[in-house]
Amino acid sequence: MMGSTHALTGWCAGLALAPAIGAGSVHQALAFAATTAGFALLPDLDHPGARASKLLGPITGMVCWLLRHASAGLYAVTKGPRDERRRGSHRHLSHTLLFALGAGAATTAGTRAGGWYVVAAVVLFALLLAADALGDWLLLVAGGGVAWWALTASAAAELSQLTGWLGIAVAAGCVTHCLGDALTEAGCPFLFPVPIAGETWYELRPPGFLRFRTGKGVEKFLIVPVFTVLAVVLVPGAWSGLVGLFAEPVVAAVR
């Protein structure tokens, strides 16, 4: 999947999950969803050309280098008899359920130890990731949202309520990324290290007729439009507002 599609699907996943973790206000739901959207790009940190790897220059570049080498080393010692003869540096370690759970657990521990300051840092980093994929307009919208938040609510108190729960947003973002990649031609070794058909790094993928190529027609003209609509509809209060907007003229016409 393209980076923008990963961010878009991550945003929708975050909005869908927010009520389940108790993010009751619009502010909290949007902060949670922004985190999921940004971290839906994190697994591609194992590719030097990815947006996530270039985001903070040499800092994320070094993390990319470390992740690639760790992934290649792990692949070398764990590959099964039917795994492909490859280096295993891209679409391996960071594209697994274990990585998603580890990133989520680390975020939970960090936010619990550091409080709302760490929560704010995680959300900001996620926004930078998402804005890099979706466009700088997102930063302008986020800036307006922060100002609105500061005027209408206690931002620090509401961020503190996300402490511990933000790890779910990070893990969900990584999982969303992997599920998206599993629909492409290459597949995704999501269930490592569970051995399947002689492969420790078995690439999960649907039947051939359900797969699509990254950046081609299915992604651009089906997946992106559908999730763009969902990205708006899933915002708390948006559905009822849209229904009211279109229902009022109809009711008035009937009367």
TrEMBL record:
The chain crosses the membrane at residues 55-77, 98-131, 137-157, 221-247. The keyword Transmembrane helix applies. InterPro entries: YdjM-like. Pfam families: YdjM. Keywords: Membrane, Transmembrane, Transmembrane helix. This is Metal-dependent hydrolase. It comes from Amycolatopsis viridis.
